[in-house]
Fold this sequence. Notes:
The structure holds 2 protein chains of 2 kinds. By secondary structure, chain A is mainly alpha-helical. Chain A contains 4 helices and no strands. Chain B has 8 helices and no strands. Chain B has helices at residues 2-5, 17-41, 56-61, 73-89, 95-98, 100-128, 133-165, 170-175. In chain B, α2 crosses α7, α4 runs antiparallel to α6 and α6 runs antiparallel to α7 (133-165). Classes of the chains: A mainly alpha, B mainly alpha. Chain A binds chain B through residues 15, 18, 28-29, 32-33, 36-37, 39-40, 43-50, 53, 99-106, 108-109, 112, 114, 117-118, and chain B through 7-12, 14, 115, 118, 121-122, 125-126, 139, 143-144, 146-148, 150-151, 154-155, 157-158, 161-162, 165.
Amino acid sequence: MWPRIVNAILGIWLMAAPAVLGYTEPAATSDRIAGPLIAMAAIVAISGATRPVRRVNAALGVWLILAPLILGYGWTPAINSVAVGAVVAALSLIRGTVSDTFGGGWSALWSSQQREANEHGR
Amino acid sequence: MSAERTPPGWSYNPSEWGQRLPIVGAALVGFAIASYLALYQLNVFSTVWEPFFGDGSRKILNSGVSKILPIPDGALGALGYLADAVTGVIGGRDRWRRMPWIVVIFGLAVGPLGAISILLVILQPVLYSAWCTLCLASAVISILMIGPAMDETLASLQYIRQERSRGRSVWRAFWGIK
C-alpha cells in the first residue's frame, strides 16, 4: 500500500511544484501533465485487481529523469524532476502484498489455458 | 451458497453489495458536485464556490474547453456519474455471470470516463493557469472509483472467456442467456 500512497503524494506534489518552487515552462508543463497521471496510476494500483497498473509509473518516472535533458530545464526543476522520477520509478517496481485471488487476473483473458486460475494477480 | 456466487479462482465475490455500494455512494457524491457545477455553467447560480484558487473556478468553468460540446462539461460529468450509479446498482450478487453486459457498461462508465476526468485536470493549469477546487474534488472521486470497480469487470470478462473456451456462445454469455 505505502509505495502507492507515496507515489500518489509525489504526483500531487508535481502539480503544485511549479507554483511552490517558482518555475515555468517547459518544466511546469511536463510536471503538470506527469503529476496527475502518476497520482491516478498510483491510486488505481492500490486495488489488488488493478495492481499491475503500477507499472505505468515506471515509464512516467523514467520520463521525469530524462525530461530535463530533453526539454532543457533550469537547476531547480531539473533536480526536482530527477529526484521525484527516481523515487516514483523505484516504488512502482514494488508489487507489495495482494491477499486476494482474481481467477488468474487479466492475463487469463488472453491465455488459452485455465492453468493460471489459482495464480495471484501480478 | 456464497461459494456458488464467487467466481472460479477468486477469493471473494466482486458483485457483493459490500463491494458495489461504496462505489455507488461515491458516484452519487460526484453527481451532486457535477450537478452543482453544471447549474453554475447553465447560469442557474451566478457565483461558484471557490475557497482556494481565487477566480480559478470561474475561469475553468467558462473556458473554451468546457463549451466544446453542446452541453457544458459539468452536465456531462453529472450524466457520467448517474450512469455509474445506475449501472452499479442494477443486478444481484451474481450479476458478474447473470448480467455481464451491465457489468461491462459499468466498467466502461467508471474506467474510461474516470480517465477523461484526469485529462480535464491536466488541461486546467496547462491551458488556463488556473485551478478549480470542485473540479479537482470530482476528479479525485472518479479516480478513487476506478480500482474498486474494475475487479467486477474482470470477473465478467473471465466468465465470457470461460464460456467461449467451453464452446458456448460469447453473445449469449454477454447477455446472460442460459
